[in-house]
Structures
1.
Amino acid sequence: MSEEIINRVAQSKLLSIDLEEILKPDEVVVFDLSEYLFQGLILREKDFRAALKALDSSVYENKVVAIQCRADAIVPMWANMLVASKLQPIARLAILGTETEARREQIRRQLESYDYKELHDRMVVVKGCGNIPEGEFAMVEFTKRAVPEVRSLMFGEPCSTVPIYKKPREKRQPLP
């Protein structure tokens, strides 16, 4: 009298999303303007332009670059513009800000390019275990974009989920 074990998770209509499969983080490199300050205080245009011209750009090739000044100095706006113009053709992404801000911008852009139509009116579980840089930020950004499409959104594993969102009944389409 042995009963067949039925895997209800496998039979469910849940769509499991692993953000590690969507997000492909690149290395973040910092371009620190403080390295170009004269006496650690001011940025001389002529010297700075010469330093940029001689810059080994291979360090920034296909990388995410955070442009910042770690020193307590006033940096003219044109300096950041010069750096951006130098990095634009070689870096994958260059932003003015911290390493964290650069990672977050990359996550935002990758999630913007994801096709959320495949989630339309489906029950979705976002896997909770993973090693995504800025994971909480990524979860929030994904949630903001997924909620308009999904029937329900859950966090965790299909066998143990935490409900996050459920579309009101009048907006739902019948399950096929």
Note: The first strand starts at residue 14 and ends at 17.
2.
Amino acid sequence: MLSSLLTIAALHWAILLIPGFNFVLIGQLAAGGSRRAALAAVVGMTTGTLAWALLAVAGVGAVFTAHPALRQAAQVAGGLYLLYLAWELLRGSGAVPVADSASMGARQALRAGFVTSALNPKIALFYGSVFATALPAQPSAWHVAAAVAMVYANSWLWHGFLAFALSQAGVQRAYLRHCRLLTRCSALLVGAFGLRLIATAVQELRAR
């Protein structure tokens, strides 16, 4: 049991440490002066992570593999939502005062964190493949529960750490000096993540 959990943990941390949309969103909120909103986004992200981990255990990853159209539809929806967030960032980057750069409230941040995780079916495929590879053929209920709880805790540890680290006064001062530029860069990154999701789904459809 311990060896399989360690394998899952190692694979999960390898993915967590790769900067992605979650890093951009937390950094934008935390460095912009709103640790509360950043932590709310973390709650949303980790809730989405937990939901996908539970669904992966239930076999949804296998369903996405058998019916790729469902996964592709979810990818397109997730990509469109990221493009919407990127547009909102760009629209506000020139008008939001430097002292109020973190304009997203806690409720909005929680929703953004959850929706972007919920609309990313690659999370389900990742958990499904990792659980299928690392867990024994017939794991006990406790073994499965421990695996799900561990990836949930890992997600909380990493994203919570980012929220606190990036909301330190020195980081915030550096952010506020270059608020508009960094907001535009964040918008471009978020938009790039969204376009990549959509482009991947379109390429898969064309290859069929």
Note: Confidence is low (pLDDT under 50) at residues 94-102.
